[in-house]
Amino acid sequence: MREAARTVEDAGWTPWSAAATAERFGGIDILVANAGVGAYGPFLDLPPDQLDEMIDVNVKGTLYAVRATLPYLLKSDAADIVTIASEAGRRGLPYEVAYCASKFALEAFSDALRAEVKPAGIRVALVEPGPVATNFVGGSKGAGVPEPRTMKL
Predict the structure, then answer these.
(1) Please, are residues 85 and 106 in contact by the beta-carbon 8 Å criterion?
(2) Closest CA relative to residue 16, chosen from 61, 55, 74, 69
(3) CB atoms near residue 126 (< 10 Å)
(4) What's the CATH code, domain 2-12+29-152?
């Protein structure tokens, strides 16, 4: 997954990847958009490059991946798109302002996309997990306030 997290924000890479996948497997029946990055801490302390990275990977990466695979999914008899967001996108949490915004965008995107592609028989599911036991968030300081830094899956 680390490679995907570094490349999904590249609008030129996702069509190439989708085409290579479809060629190797004879089509595409499912897309799981799961790349994500986060930077945590007081909003004013987050550098612009971390804000850009969250939007580029979490939002644009998902849009680019769906856009690149949709032509193949439209040819499938049973196609699914699964987007992975976060409970944080529904709740809005302090010290996770930009991360929450990027994950809320996926909720709106998935809802709108579901309505658009349903007539073609494509199902769209949104998964919004809560806290999980990974090192995605890393250590925290003080009363559960993470230090500003970027973590990748």
Answers:
(1) yes
(2) 69
(3) 19
(4) 3.40.50.720
Mean pLDDT of the 71-90 span: 93
Q: Is 40 a catalytic residue?
A: no
Give the orientation angle of helix 61-73 with respect to helix 97-117, to 10 degrees.
Answer: 20
Considering only 2-6, 41-45, 51-55, 58-62, which range has the smallest mean pLDDT?
A: 2-6
The CA distance from 104 to 139, in Å, is 24
Whole-structure pTM value? 0.81
Find the catalytic residue in 40, 72, 95, 99: 99
Domain spans in the chain, listed from the N-terminal domain onward: 2-12+29-152
Instruction: Answer for the pair 30, 82: CB distance below 8 angstroms, yes or no.
Output: yes
Q: What is the DSSP letter of 136?
A: S
The residue among 16 and 131 whose pLDDT is bigger is: 16
Is-contact 147 139, C-beta < 8 A?
Answer: yes
User: Higher-confidence residue: 64 or 150?
Assistant: 64
pLDDT of residue 136: 60
